[in-house]
Design brief:
binds pyridoxal-5'-phosphate; Rossmann fold
Length: about 475
């Protein structure tokens, strides 16, 4: 399988090259040249597979010759072995046609583990074959950092440095990062804000000399392999609920559009997905797009669902590419307009094509809390704020009676315990595995908001740079 850029000007690459490259050299995102369509007999045969075996089967055609079948299977089995639930992604029935799929049984209690656990192992395998080492540097305001750390810990070919703003992440979030005792994990608390951390990372990527010396890389949400690993749970849920004989819908709390775009890929593969519902918080750029056809940036408001507090949904570019007839020049034009003026518009035909699959709903914090409370009263289940948005959007936007809608639960409620307790009066407990989190020793280094100091710290410890 070959991959092309959404902006049409980057070289065509193979899976392993796309994995290591992340962003395309023309600023676009890589997508498959053609998505393989799965036939009915194959969907049927996949019904009996375990989650790890299904993951290997779904990913195989996309991976091409980059890995042997045995290597891919070993990676997916290892990735999901550490999950807390035997089903990996269990489904709970909330109402006649409403199901919730729990994607938070991984090591950091958020859905990002579903892909990151695969991604870290893919990197390790492909780098070992190339006898290469890389240094991953990232900035986090909370969730992504711990998922990246858990994915990269103890990997032979990777050192990982995660910057967070000192004193500005929750104690649970900080401890999920700083209590990981692995020789290749470095937590740096920057005396500054999240934006300062992000600027430092950007500056490190812009510093060509530093970038080359440490073989700098990232595991951000635009990496195609992350999208691919997320396609699996859409297939998983649909098969459990009767696909390919029966259609199903999904409702997804969305920020960067990475999670829900994986659902779109599953639909393109021929999975009978009737609708994809976008759930947003007050940061409603996507909801406004699906209402008007205009993508218009606005300021970012902090909410009780912080993992969806974004201004730009990077992965939306992949959908736009399809909706514009896979015309890289048209995508480039739209994205340039967006960068220059903070907005772009699509034609009524393109909007109609998007709305044939997608609908959207935005909930502010008060409505989100009301949804947590209402679902708790109705079902006894406690949802985190992100997941509650997905469930509320599913209830509001479900299209056809009798077609089940699966709302994706993207975080364990204890991860956002305070908001949950305020909403429904119950303080959710951390799972037993993390019960002693508050007592574990922490490892972190506090550094000033200074590029040279941070680069020197990384250089001295990166094995790719010969630092250790
Ligand atoms: C990252 C995240 C999201 C948003 O996922 P996208 O792929 O960015 O749409 C939603 N919920 C939680 C808990 C997350 O961590």
């Amino acid at each position: 399988m070959r991959y092309i850029s959404t902006r049409g000007e980057a070289p065509v690459l193979s899976f392993d090259e796309v994995l290591l490259a992340g962003l395309a050299s023309d600023g676009g995102l890589y997508v498959p040249q053609a998505v393989p369509v799965v036939d009915v007999a194959t969907w049927d045969a996949w019904r009996t597979l375990s989650y790890a075996d299904l993951a290997a089967a779904v990913m195989k055609p996309f991976v091409g010759g980059a890995l042997t079948d045995a290597e891919l299977s070993e990676i997916t089995h290892a990735a999901y072995a550490g999950f807390d639930h035997a089903a990996v992604a269990p489904l709970k029935q909330f109402d006649t046609d409403l199901w919730v799929m729990e994607l938070f049984h991984g090591p950091t209690l958020a859905f990002k583990d579903m892909a990151m656990q695969v991604l870290g192992r893919l990197f390790d395998n492909l780098l070992a074959k190339r006898q290469k080492r890389i240094t991953i540097v990232g900035a986090t305001s909370g969730d992504t950092g711990s998922a990246a750390i858990e994915a990269c810990r103890d990997r032979e070919a990777i050192d990982v440095f995660i910057l967070h703003p000192a004193g500005r992440v929750s104690e649970v979030q900080r401890r999920q990062m700083t209590t990981v005792s692995a020789q290749n994990v470095f937590n740096i608390a920057i005396k500054g804000t999240f934006d300062d951390c992000q600027d430092l990372v950007k500056s490190m990527f812009a510093d060509g000399n530093f970038r080359d010396r440490v073989s700098l890389s990232a595991v951000n949400s635009i990496n195609w392999a992350r999208v691919l690993a997320q396609v699996v749970y859409y297939v998983w849920a649909a098969l459990r609920l009767g696909a390919p004989d029966r259609a199903v819908g999904f409702s997804v709390p969305t920020g960067n559009f990475g999670n829900i775009f994986a659902g779109y890929v599953a639909k393109t593969m021929g999975l009978p997905i009737e609708q994809l519902i976008v759930g947003s918080n007050r940061n409603d750029i996507l909801t406004r797009f699906f209402a008007s056809g205009e993508m218009a940036m606005s300021e970012v408001f902090p909410t009780i669902s912080p993992s969806m507090d974004i201004q730009i949904s990077s992965n939306f570019e992949r959908l736009l590419f399809d909706m514009l007839g896979r015309d890289g020049t048209a995508v480039r034009g739209a994205m340039n307009r967006f960068r220059q003026s903070g907005r772009f518009e699509v034609s009524p035909e393109v909007l109609a094509r998007s709305r044939a699959v997608f609908s959207a709903l935005s909930l502010d914090d008060a409505k989100t809390k009301a949804a947590i409370k209402a679902e708790y009263k109705a079902t006894g289940e406690i949802l985190d704020p992100h997941s509650a948005i997905g469930v509320a959007a599913a209830r509001a936007r479900a299209k056809t009676p009798g077609v089940p809608v699966v709302a994706l639960a993207t975080a364990h409620p204890a991860k956002f315990g305070q908001a949950v307790e305020e909403a429904c009066g119950v303080a959710p407990k951390l799972p037993p595995r993390l019960a002693d989190l508050m007592d574990r020793p922490e490892r972190l280094t506090i550094l000033p908001n200074d590029l040279k100091t941070v680069e020197d710290y990384v250089l001295a410890r990166s094995r790719a740079a010969g630092g250790r």
